[in-house]
Write a structure and sequence with these properties.
Elements: E1 3-13, E2 18-24, E3 36-42, E4 48-54, E5 65-70, H1 78-83, E6 90-94, E7 111-116, H2 121-133, E8 139-145, H3 154-162, E9 167-173, E10 184-185, H4 190-200, E11 206-211, H5 213-225, E12 233-237
Parallel strand pairs: 7-8, 7-11, 8-9, 9-10, 11-12
Antiparallel strand pairs: 1-2, 1-6, 2-5, 3-4, 3-6
Bound molecules: flavin-adenine dinucleotide.
């Protein structure tokens, strides 16, 4: 694996548990929306921990790389970022990785993206890339979060959807008894997939699903039940 040293240039809180970390690197490594990087931390005694993080920024943003990291209380690497890492710190990042869970405007659509929690991160890169490239590919993002506060990038996604240029956002909250207007309630179900398909005016050419293992299992099953061919579904699992 190729590594480079990147400097943290900014930290932005996205929710009570997720923050974006912006990195600058001496040399820009091109990437495709949906790819991830490995982060490698080395302790003074030489102990190393390595984790994968999806790239949230668009490929067109060459000045920096954005990662959005959720804090897992009993985790090893994510608490480091939230509790210890500061602007100016140098971190080792790998070259962009992954050639399967990717989308570029030339691929066209329609595209269905289903994200749970931090599983939304690669879809930020895809949605931003779609907007930057002027793509008109129909794209629906079905975003499941626990509470309103966990709808990371919510304002930016709503603004993209508000342009009425073929990008649609369906948000659902699993732990909010009274969701705000326009936001659904409950886990991903058949009616939500149906709503997404009606916005796409048919079956998607590609479906991307990202989140925890149980989230991906449920969303994939619902998608197949709705008539989407398994071979057109790509999944990315963020651990347990
Ligand atoms: C391709 C890829 C891309 C990823 N992109 C992102 C991203 O953009 N943002 C992000 O926040 N994470 C992402 N992850 C998850 C990330 O790699 C780490 O697994 C996560 O940050 C936990 O690492 P940790 O060292 O803090 O916890 P660990 O020390 O690895 O684990 C601590 C505890 O949490 C459990 N656990 C591990 N991962 C998860 C999880 N995802 N959800 C719930 N419990 C878990 C473990 O079983 C353990 O009990 C991605 C994973 C993959 C494979």
């Amino acid at each position: 694996m190729r590594w480079r040293t990147a400097t943290i240039t900014g930290i932005v809180r996205r929710s009570p548990t997720v923050s974006s970390f912006f990195f600058s690197t001496p040399h820009h490594w091109p990437f495709v929306a949906g790819q991830h990087v490995a982060v490698r931390l080395t302790a003074p005694d030489g102990y190393r921990a390595q984790r994968s993080y999806s790239i949230a920024s668009a490929p067109e943003e060459t000045g920096h790389l954005e990662l959005a990291i959720e804090r897992l209380d009993d985790g090893e690497v994510s608490p480091f970022f939230h509790d210890v890492a500061r602007v100016g710190d140098e971190i080792e990042l790998s070259a962009p990785l992954g050639g399967y869970f990717i989308w570029q405007s030339a691929d066209g659509g329609p595209i269905l993206m289903i994200g749970g929690g931090a599983g939304i991160v690669p879809f930020m890169s895809m949605a931003r890339h779609r907007a930057n490239s002027g793509s008109k590919a129909p794209m629906v993002l079905l975003f499941s979060a626990r509470t309103k506060a966990d709808l990371i990038f919510g304002d930016e996604l709503a603004a993209l959807a508000g342009r009425a240029e073929g990008f649609h956002l369906i948000a659902t909250l699993t732990r909010e008894t009274a969701p705000p207007a326009g936001v659904l309630s409950g886990r991903i179900d058949a009616s939500m997939i149906e709503r997404a398909l009606s916005l796409l005016c048919g079956l998607p050419a590609r479906t991307f699903i990202c989140g925890s293992n149980p989230f991906v299992e449920n969303a994939a099953t619902r998608s197949i039940d709705a008539g989407i061919a398994a071979g057109r579904i790509s999944t990315e699992r963020y651990g347990v």
